[in-house]
Amino acid sequence: MFLDKVxxxxxxxxxxDSTQQTSTLSRLKTAALLGFAAGMAYVVFAPSGVHRLxxxxxxxxxxxxxxxxxxxxxxxxxxxxxxxxAAHRAPSRYALPAGEIDVQAASVMGKKLVxxxxxxTLIEFTLDPMLQRAAQNALEKYKVEYGALVAVRPSTGxxxxxxxxxxxxxxxRHLALQAEGPAxxxxxVISSAALLEYGALRPxxxxxxxxxxxxxxxxxxxxxxRRDRKCETFSQALGSSNNVAFARWADQLLTPAxxxxxxxxxxFNRRLPFLWGVAASQARIPAGSRLGFARSAAGxxxxxxxxxxxxxxxxxxxxxxxMMAPRLVARASRDGEELYRAExxxxxxVMPADRAKQLAKMMVSTTxxxxxxxxxxxxxxxxxxxVDVGGKTGSLAxxxxxxxxxxxxxxxxxxxxxxxxxxxxxxxxxxxxxxxTVKGIVPVRELLxxxxxxxxxxxx
Length: 460
Fold this sequence. Notes:
- By secondary structure, the chain is of the alpha+beta class.
- The chain is 32% helix and 20% strand.
- The radius of gyration is 25 Å and the shape is globular.
């Protein structure tokens, strides 16, 4: 959590000569007033407490940290004014009851999703009812083994959709907060950010390679003029998810420490602040293996990712390089009294705006010429005319437990504007067994269809 520390001013500590000459009773009254006012200020500005999740939470860390009521500093002023302001804004200390909050228990009230808890508290979610319904329907329609779909507003961190589905285990919860699956080629977004920064690579720089579609070997890292016939720009290689290109660029232009640093800046290996506990996505970049390092840069090994984090990574690219704290609850009230209101908060300055803009525009190649092209076209025409969609696919199979699991990812920003910013960021992970039902890109595309159709028809 990032709180502004409140320190009393010298004036607050001073006691005037006249006060020193007052009676003992007067001093006691003054001390009581100051103590009461300071206590109220603490109630408002101190961090909220740590809460426990309900027992049925699925594989989630049990301790969570909630956001404070406000993120404003107490300006230097007299304590009487501070007391009046505190009393007006928050008559009592309140912490969100995380264990009681359940999106599935919410109902539509007007254009908002609201849950009423057992004590009558109204929990107003940031979720868009239309997008939440569309996200849930998309997962259920394809009956994936399990999966999650998350949409956020890049500029604020508001979660607009948070859906999950497990075909054979309907009681599994918080799938979007798990980080058990490999990041796969979604990690090429992080590698691209590192190559733009440390490798001085430009979007139109070209490389020629061969092979490496499913495996990477040391031989792939060495240029071969006779066999290197597949030539692509940096932008095109990101769009086509060119494994050898990214492995070779990393080998030639980056160090493991540099890629690790950029990964950490994207908040890998860190717990994300959220209403519920979020498993930390992992990025362990090998420093002692040339091939291992190259494979990590291409997304083959060393990384895991949660769907919520994936959505925030896309949102960061679409928000001038700033990652916002994800927010699911907009406000809480009881008997007409506001108890809690969330405010936007930057949790990481990941990259400068100019590089974020470059990366956002590079990701558009995924849907125009790359691995997502056929999903964003219909009869040879763009499904969303006039809307540039930046995206990244990722796919990797795991056989570690003796069971085959195919992890299929897609992250997207849309529309990618002239300045690289976007209105919505979406991430989906679907896990299939031996039989595939759908790729992760499909539910994302359907959610974007719903979002932009609504905007065109004036539904938003």
